[in-house]
Amino acid sequence: MRQTGQDETRGATRTGYPEVCRVELDRPLSWLAAGWRDLRANPIASLAYGLLFAIAGDLITIFAWRNGHLFIVATSGFFLVAPLLAGGLYEISRRREAGLSSTFFSSLAGGRRNAVELSKFGLLLGLIGVCWERLSTLLFELLAPGLPADLLALLAEIHFPPENRDLLAIWILTGGTVAAIVFAMTVVSVPLLLDRPVRVGTAILTSVRAVDANLMVMAFWGAIVVALTALGFLTLFFGLVVLMPLIGHASWHAYRDLVRADAGESSSPHPEYR
Hints:
Number of domains: 1
Number of helices: 14
Strand content: under 5%
Low-confidence stretches: 4-14, 263-274
Number of strands: 2
Structural class: mainly alpha
Distance between the termini: 26 Å
């Protein structure tokens, strides 16, 4: 069950930001179950998004597999912006919660309600992706100047100089830090932007506060997302046809659990958000 901490309640009152809630450790399992119900209730629209994710992953593989660095950057960049790309899945779950059916095209309409702020957020995520690519290249150039800026090349020579293994560890640690920051920024921010007419800064801060109030829960949820995504990778991206809609729908229910609804609010607080 959802539990609202007293400190979060006072903070929301002082600042006017949406109130975040504390939840039980096992709530991510309930989010997955609710996400699965959304997927089953809207299979065509949901799986259409999953198919787009899978096709994008396969296209990245086809065109970038000969260039390991390009492949890694494209893949990591793709999943950095995945929370924004999953906006249609959040919209399907929002509409189902409001008692409305959805098609693929009707789910696209959700992005028009707060288009300016969503666009700003997309640009921010894109900028983070570019910065990660530059940082990744810089790490290779500083720590292994004789090695191409290519993780696949590094893996091929991992049994040679110890500094290559050190580079791999530093690269993974740095990438994990970037991923954790993006996760904290996005875990509820995109659903919030779709659900309420808030600014992108408010959405990001609310997301970070929700993570801060539920560190163990968010670590568990993050591990589930990573595991399901890795499973999708192992199936040459075709598993993403089902797994990405499942994660997307579950993320909507995570948002509804972690961000307290306004008084009298149903699924959305304004008529234009229905």
